[in-house]
Amino acid sequence: MCQAPPGVWQRGHPAGEENLLAILRRRWWKYMILGLIDLEANYLVVKAYQYTTLTSIQVPRLSSLLIFLIFQM
């Protein structure tokens, strides 16, 4: 869980309606689904690395870095 600013735990979220713990207790299942989707996506990416070569991974990665640096100038 991300660290919330200290005032959020005492005063509630910026809208001020209820505190963060109440929101998490009510919506925990949504965060669980998002966590499982993220876990599955990370697993599939790592599994895909087994079927490719290091060159095919590095070329798009390095070319995207080069394009990023060009557009920063």
Description:
This protein has helices at residues 6-11, 20-49, 54-72. By secondary structure, it is mainly α. The protein has one domain. The longest helix has 30 residues, at 20-49.
Could you name the key traits of this structure?
73 residues, mainly alpha, 0% strand
- Share of residues in helices: over 70%
Strand content: under 5%
How many distinct beta strands? 0
Structural class: mainly alpha
Tally of helical runs: 3
List the helices and strands and how they pair.
Layout lengths: L5 H6 L8 H30 L4 H19 L1
In short:
By secondary structure, the chain is an all-alpha fold.
